[in-house]
Amino acid sequence: MNKTILIIRILFMALCVFGAWLFWYANPDLQEYLALSLFIGAAIGTLTILIDVFIKGFSVRGLTAVAFGIAVGSLIAFLITSSPLFDQGDPQTLHLSRLALFIISVYLATIITLRGKDDFNLLIPYIKFVPHNVDVPLIVLDTSILIDGRIVNICQSRFISSAIVIPKFVIEELHRVADSGDTQKQIKGRKGLEVLNKLKNMNYIDLRIQDVDVDQAEQVDSKLIYLCQTLKAKLMTTDFNLAKLAEFHGIAWLNLNALSKALNPDISIGQYLDVDLVKTGKEEHQGVGYLSDGSMVVVNESAQFIGKSVTAEVISILPSAGGKMIFARIHAASNPSNANGTSATAGIPAY
Fold first, then answer.
1. Is the four-CA dihedral 140, 1, 215, 108 of positive or negative sign?
2. Mind listing the pLDDT tens digit for each residue in 126-172?
3. Are 127 and 212 spatial neighbours (Cβ–Cβ below 8 Å)?
4. Is residue 202 a contact partner of residue 145, using CB atoms and an 8 Å limit?
5. Phi, psi at residue 135, to the nearest 5°?
6. What is the DSSP string of 75-96?
7. How many CB atoms within 10 Å of residue 333?
8. d(CA 137, CA 233)
9. CB–CB of 114/69 below 8 Å?
């Protein structure tokens, strides 16, 4: 993008100089002022580019708001100056009064429309972030979702039919994290950017990069809340605090951790589990393993199988902060043949 803009600016500068040369060539009276003509052309091009750099942060919304403000201000000034109040008087005074009224009206109308540009959607729907297909449900992704990475697998499974919206300020935050001096943050930021590229390459999902900023908020979380409110979109996040903030503002939110927990297999008493025993329990005869969701499995009479995979029968289940604590006993069919180094996937019931 930056290279493209640079090339356009170079071409524009060349056209300005070429235009100055044509003007010099078409006017015989200026034959002695070739250098001055070329200098004026280059100066005009440079001044224009400087103005372009100065208004770099000026968005299409802002430009439209300014245009609308100028139009409304001009109309108001015209209506007032066309009234009988300006029918009589000194012509020079009337002219100056009309000019002053025009400047004041245009200034006030422009300032008002700029301040309220996010609520102004008369000319272009995008001024209020409203997409073309307003009937399509939207899901806004935050930074934590991209760093988490599981969204890629979910999209590959085709479970998401909604349009996925990734705000530009979220991408900018990922770049800041990736450029951080902290190694761990760099790893997370780069992973998030890799996930973003994978999503862009999925042509079967409706991915939209929201190329606007939210002027009403400074923090990324606040911008996400405002954007979701404006788009009437859901927020997908793994950040519990952000999820609660969204809930406070009446925004529906999707939590991948809650989804992952809901997809864990339901375990009941009498069910058989294949589990890897990694350490001894409180009792010397107990072996302890873990399921994929973090639930602890305590297997009685299994200390001799530490470091191996066993089939155990669930005898009781206790809820805990980390998930579930499951007590089991060695299945009668379990034998040392499980110790050959081959381990079944923990958490999948064996029948």
1. negative
2. 444 444 444 578 999 999 999 998 899 888 888 888 899 998 889 99
3. no
4. no
5. -85, -10
6. HHHHHHHTSGGGSSS-HHHHHH
7. 10
8. 7
9. yes
CA 72 to CA 113: how far, in whole Å?
10
Residue 277 contacts residue 269 (beta carbons within 8 Å): no
Q: Identify which of 59, 57, 246, 61 has the alpha carbon closest to the alpha carbon of residue 141.
A: 246
* Domains of the chain and any CATH numbers: 2-117 (no CATH), 131-261 (3.40.50.1010), 267-339 (2.40.50.140)
275 bridge partner residues: 310
- Which residues face 140 on adjacent strands? 165, 235
Residues contacting 154, CB < 8 A, separation 6+: 160, 256
Question: Which range has the worst mean pLDDT, 48-52, 214-218, 282-286?
Answer: 214-218
pLDDT reported for residue 299: 92
Residues across the chain: 351
Please report how many Cα atoms fall inside a 13 Å half-sphere around the Cα of residue 23, on the Cβ side. 15
Sign of the C-alpha dihedral computed for residues 337, 339, 345 and 349 taken in this order: positive
Residue 314: CB atoms within 10 Å:
19
CB atoms within 10 A of CB 135: 5
Residues linked to residue 255 through DSSP beta bridges, in sequence order? 237
Adjacent-strand bridge partners of 274: 311
